[in-house]
């Protein structure tokens, strides 16, 4: 694959305050590297609507083609990652969302608690935005389903 830009956004107050390590972000970085993509940025932001929204806007402005947002997919008071993501999407990839859910359920019944969504910002192009729950297992499950399909996802776009 080419060297399209990828960004990782981790929404976690605990990681931001150094109470927890960013293992999920490191796993996502490994996927980006192993698939020959270029990491533009890996950032940790506070939980909540505005911090996630600002980070996605920044990634889109930098023309990142793959934006991985980790965390904020549950039902907590500060979990707005799906709501923020949805406003940027032109084409939801419901089938991929289902595949990720099925993969996650093989490991944990908690996978069904994630409301993460996946989609493209434009039909026939744009950026792919992926929501992952914050556990390292959830990130592995999601990216192991999605990354092998990147050539197909970007088939109708400029080459990935």
UniProtKB/TrEMBL annotation:
A Pfam entry, by short name: MoCF_biosynth
One GO BP annotation of this record: Mo-molybdopterin cofactor biosynthetic process
UniProt entry tagged with the keyword Membrane: no
Domain MoaB/Mog positions: 7-153
Pathway(s): Cofactor biosynthesis; molybdopterin biosynthesis
Chain segments annotated as transmembrane: none
Domain of life, source organism: Bacteria
Keywords annotated in UniProt: Molybdenum cofactor biosynthesis
Classification via Gene3D superfamilies: MoaB/Mog-like domain
Record-linked InterPro entries: MoaB/Mog-like_dom_sf (IPR036425), MoaB/Mog_dom (IPR001453), MPT_Adenylyltrnsfr/MoaC-Rel (IPR051920)
Xref: PANTHER family: MOLYBDENUM COFACTOR BIOSYNTHESIS, MOLYBDOPTERIN MOLYBDOTRANSFERASE
This protein's name: Molybdopterin-binding protein
Species this chain originates from: Corynebacterium propinquum
